Every structure is written in structure tokens, then in C-alpha cells.
Amino acid sequence: MTNLGIGLIGYAFMGAAHSQAWRSAPRFFDLPLDPAMNVLCGRNPEAVAAAATKLGWKETETDWRKLLGRDDIQLIDVCTPGDSHAEIAIAALEAGKHVLCEKPLANTVEEAEAMTAAAEAAAAKGIRSMVGFTYRRVPAIGLARQLVAEGRLGTIRHVRAQYLQDWIADPEAPLSWRLDKEKAGSGALGDIGAHIIDLTQFITGDTIAEVSGQLETFVKERPVAAEHSGLAGTAGSERGPVTVDDAAVFLARFGSGALGVFEATRFATGRKNAIRIEINGSLGSLAFDFEDMNLLHFYDATEDARTAGFRRILATESAHPYVEAWWPPGHLLGYEHGFTHQVVDLVTAIANGADPTPSFADGLRIQRVLAAVEASSTSRQWQEIPVSERSE
Predict the structure, then answer these.
(1) How far apart are CA 122 and CA 369, in angstroms?
(2) Separation CA 272–CA 296 (nearest Å)
């Protein structure tokens, strides 16, 4: 089997999740290429060396540019803050490397447009790229998409989506790069709101046409982190400004005419990672909550009214997306499996000479929705995403 040499840039929360996926995918799935965890890259030589030993990488590097000239690296996996996504991804594509880039694709529409143009030019030469919206790869979400595509919900009328967290609800929780607009682009809107925008468009097969939104920063100043690990950190004595939104809410209308209600917040006290999607159609409804991620609730309005009701589907059967490679029915999957499934889809697409999804163009479409919500929050007016920008 031919090796696919991987160079991963970034080793914190997402770097660890991606590392686990690169390790696990070839051990549970029959992949057409064998991912080789060749190089882990980070700025701190001691920290990246410790991470490489823990996560299973062969070598380390402190300058990501050096990865681009290595013959043993065929794919660059970008797990850095958003302010470096465009520079790294474009350089990697131009160097002939496949690219997996964490979401959101970029910090601005302009960066995302440049990344998409680079991806399209690279695709003409057989170089593939994908943006990492991993929740698409949850089996229950894949089943939801199948049911909609089969017409089981009929005409979609309502989309309801929430992403609720509470990890900075404490006003003394320290600043991290995710609270710095220059590094992150936006706050709850881009970090977690991007996921529910992608999921609803993925499940329905439709795109958001216009939005009306509002952003809010509840805590304007926080202690500067003395040290940071993942989403947690230790506060220092200095304080600094929060320059992103803590919460985002917006109304949406889809291209089909369906109405959408969206909420993304890091201040939902008691909610750790609640991704709630409900879709109502003329023939039925679907409901999903990531905090019970193996379940999909389905209502079939064509059934006899005497016995009709929401059906609880445990999406762990071998007939459900991705599940056949794992455990017997009822043996549950977890957060990390979405990243493994992402690797499977990406490696398979590369081997088959196909363009993987979600593409950089998909990421650009989501970036345009994010920008429209932010613009609406400032102007207090509805913002349209033109058809040409939703379908290109």
C-alpha cells in the first residue's frame, strides 16, 4: 500500500483530535492509502517534541514552511488559529500538497476567496483540499441527510439550530486566542455557529439566502492567560479586552423559502456541547442533539395519527453511515469518531482522484453567511447572500 505522508501543523486541542484520527482510521477502515504520521509542527520545540511523543508522530519541526519541501509529506493538516489558515493552505497547495484545513476556513471572506481560488487551481493538477466540518461525519447526521434526500420530510419549512456551550460563562475565565478577533476572526459566531450553518445546509441540501442577526459580547474584559491548554487556562494578573462576540443569534431564509432560527453561544450555563438541530417538513420532522449523539429522532406524518409519534433511532446499525467498521449495534460512538471518518473520506477521495467535501468552496459559502450575520448585527438590516455566491 502506498503511504500518504502527513504533516500536521498545530498540536493543541484540534491537533490532538486530528492525531487520534490519523492513528485510528487505517486500523478500523480499509483505506486505499496508508497515512504516515511523519511530522508534527509547532513553534515551541520542547512542547511540540512532547506532543509528538504522546500523539505518535515520527519527527517534529518548528517552521511549517520546511514541510512544503519535504518529499515524505504529501498532505498538510492545518490545525492553527484562523489568522494563519490562508497563508499556510495557499502555500501548501501551490507546493503540490493536499490540504485539510480546520474550520472556519478563514477569518474573512477575502481570505476564503483566495483559498478557494488556490484550491481550484490545485485541483486541476490533481491536488485535493477539504475543510474540517467533522460533525457531518456523525452517523446520525448522515442518516438525517439520507432521510431528507429520500423525500421522507417532504417540503422543508422550518430549520431550528443551536450550538450551546458554557466554557467562558465565568467572567474570570482567562483570555485565549479564541477571544482575539485578529487571531480568530469572530467568536461564537465563527467558532461554533459555523458548524450549525454547515450542518443545516448539509442535511437539507439547501443554502441560506438571507439573514438578520445580532451579536453580543457580555464580558468585555478578562484576565490574560498565564498558560493555556485546550479550552482551559490559568489566569494571570494582567487583563485584556475581549474583541469577539460571546453569543450570536440570527434569523435566516433558505433558498427554498424555508425559515431558519440560529443561536450560538458560549454562555449557556450548564450546556457543554449541545448541538441541537430540528427540521420540520410537510411529511415529517427530524431532531438531533450532539449531547446524545448516537440518537436521531424522526417523525413520520404519513403514519396513522393514533400511533404516530417521534421515533427514537439508535444510529449504531451497520446500515448507518460509517458504523459498519466499528462495534456491534448499541455500542456507542463518540466525539473522536467524526475526525476518524473525516480521514477516511479524505484519503479515499485522494486515492480516487475525486474532490472531497466539504470543499474550500463550501467553506467560502459558510464564510459569506458569517460575514452577512456580522454585517446585519451592525446595520440592523437583513443581509442577502446572492445566488451567485451560494451556488458557485
Answers:
(1) 25
(2) 19
